[in-house]
Amino acid sequence: MTTSSSQVAEKLVHVPLGERAYDILIGPGLIGRAGGEITSRIKGRKAAIVTDENVAPLYLEALTDALQTDGIEVASLTLPAGEKTKSLDHLAAVCDMALAARIERNDAIIALGGGVIGDLAGFAAGIVRRGVRFVQIPTSLLSQVDSSVGGKTGVNSRHGKNLLGVFHQPDLVLADTDTLNTLSEREFRAGYAEVAKYGLIDKPDFFEWLEKNWKQVFSGGPARAEAIAISCQAKSDVVVEDEFENGRRALLNLGHTFGHALEAATQYDSSRLVHGEGVAIGMALAYRFSARLNLASPDDAERVEAHLKAVGLPTRISDIPGEALPVERLMEAIAQDKKVKSGKLTFILTRGIGQSYVADDVAASEVLTFLELQKAR
Amino acid sequence: MTTSSSQVAEKLVHVPLGERAYDILIGPGLIGRAGGEITSRIKGRKAAIVTDENVAPLYLEALTDALQTDGIEVASLTLPAGEKTKSLDHLAAVCDMALAARIERNDAIIALGGGVIGDLAGFAAGIVRRGVRFVQIPTSLLSQVDSSVGGKTGVNSRHGKNLLGVFHQPDLVLADTDTLNTLSEREFRAGYAEVAKYGLIDKPDFFEWLEKNWKQVFSGGPARAEAIAISCQAKSDVVVEDEFENGRRALLNLGHTFGHALEAATQYDSSRLVHGEGVAIGMALAYRFSARLNLASPDDAERVEAHLKAVGLPTRISDIPGEALPVERLMEAIAQDKKVKSGKLTFILTRGIGQSYVADDVAASEVLTFLELQKAR
Ligand SMILES: NC(=O)c1ccc[n+]([C@@H]2O[C@H](COP(=O)([O-])OP(=O)(O)OC[C@H]3O[C@@H](n4cnc5c(N)ncnc54)[C@H](O)[C@@H]3O)[C@@H](O)[C@H]2O)c1
Ligand SMILES: NC(=O)c1ccc[n+]([C@@H]2O[C@H](COP(=O)([O-])OP(=O)(O)OC[C@H]3O[C@@H](n4cnc5c(N)ncnc54)[C@H](O)[C@@H]3O)[C@@H](O)[C@H]2O)c1
Ligand SMILES: [Zn+2]
Ligand SMILES: [Zn+2]
Fold it and tell me: What is this structure's pTM?
């Protein structure tokens, strides 16, 4: 992954959530400036950094130095990389580290890493002393455009993904675009699935722009920072309208009901599937399912699939390497997914590109039949 | 403990917290009516009851029957009794039970027991699916007058008490006064310490009333329900003013900084000290400390100690059975207590009976000297 990020102007997206409002800064070199950005916004002078084994060797020292330069006392914990780290056991370890470091209400827990670290560290920040300050320094594309914004935190349970957590908004998000230079192509693509998602939810023009400009987004430069900023703004808009997910926010789950089921059925084994890949397949399925229900045109479903394929993302269940996934296992995972209300299945369906909506009355039998059909493809 | 509760009229205290407003019902026979009270307030028809080994044999069947009669599907988990149950491990067990029971956002987790069960179950209700409904059925005096109201939930850490948790208000509190008939004298007394606390914070008349009427509160009857209702109202008033403990709510910690330190130093061993006993000693210490600082008169400190003694509560560190507690251990526990901001000690001090206030600049050295002096007493 190459980038010409130093020519990219910094972007700011403000998330206007009243008492919980915060800034998202997007641009190069932000880790080096983290100390000043934090001390100008947070009273405490202690920080507990949570990161993972891939990210620590790349950025932990630079961040620690930057914080110490501005007089912040730093403790840190480096955890294994991967979805399995989002567990109650690791949550306990993070909380213990923060308490040992005597993090108080006005001090910060800092997430330095992808969405796994962000979700875990944010959960800890939400429960240590019933809430301490929280700073996101997302280093994967997925976390820069999605998970670091909006305050959803959590860990997985044996019953499903993200079933335990709290809403705890960050006080600051620093999306340092330089960090994307060390991200693998595969992870960059996975994050791109969430970028495309914003277009598919309600921004047909953005989707069209991506169809034309995706190569520049991948190669870095102004188009990349532009895509990240548009994505953060899109997420912010939805979150501000529905902070606690009682309605519209569910739209952000486009592709996620299927996606989460695929992740669960592959036991969160990242060698087979990572979150964004699950979302890519899930979005393709959501469009195909909507076409099957005569809601969207098959052409739109084709167009979505074509674009995701062009960037190298999987779009079919059979694209997942390894043993075939039994439909029953997927149905079970879907039923336990948290977007189930009083027994009925809630799905994000669509009437076309950028015309998604929340359907809360989807019959399980329809889903089952649809999934059975996918086996033949 | 005897009671004439059937003659006591039911009392209602409403906690006006906007979207999070709820009712506290106080009176006899409420467990038998739990189904109707819940179904009229909560949409879901599933409930996960959390209780402990002392309370389960007494009330779990009655509650289960009452809920099932009103069409609520019930799952339950019975945990060991005692403060050690407030741990992340038990939290994981409660969450797992609730998820296995497919508790969704509109279903309820129900706490049936004392403050330990309430704090633990409430924490679980705050994090399962990022928040499900929560019903408190407090069965100890302490939980009826204090812990079941106000939305503070949590568990202990090796670094100190209640260091992990969330604010999660209940949707309903059912304080069934009949359950107090099976509570031990010792636990009833411990709960009484929190009743007296409300008088000592800012209700000198209530404290005076208690000095005259405490025997009737202990023996049951109208004075008992009256004292519980006044206590709930007092707690509600403070919580409504400062839901997230940024200021005035800290007053409820009168006696608790010392109390928590004593609990920690005795390793939460209930054979030596239970929470309310720690609070009783803590309040006596807070008044003596305030007298030593020339804030309150020694007469007031004497009066507080005399009343607590009269009802049979401990008032001195040396009243705790077992080996003497080193002052250093207490200081360490105080320093790690969560009412510490940027290094300074926050204490609730007092200018007299019912004249408590938050002091956030108490020098550690003063506390140390004061505690050293207590050894001689
Ligand atoms: N909270 C939310 O709103 C939200 C939204 C979307 C996704 N998520 C969660 O986010 C998680 C997925 O996030 P993710 O894709 O970032 O996963 P991740 O955190 O596992 O990161 C992906 C991989 O990239 C590595 N990595 C991260 N930054 C790097 C860098 N700069 N250089 C080299 N390697 C780097 C990580 O070590 C990891 O191996 C899932 O758990 C998902 O549930 C949460
Ligand atoms: N959340 C808050 O705002 C808040 C406020 C004050 C205290 N607390 C917490 O509450 C806890 C103390 O509460 P507690 O004193 O109720 O402790 P507890 O829950 O341990 O109950 C005390 C004992 O009484 C038993 N018991 C309870 N009800 C009974 C009944 N009806 N009959 C017979 N036995 C019964 C229990 O099994 C236990 O052995 C502490 O953990 C404290 O930190 C929380
Ligand atoms: Zn996602
Ligand atoms: Zn208490």
Answer: 0.93
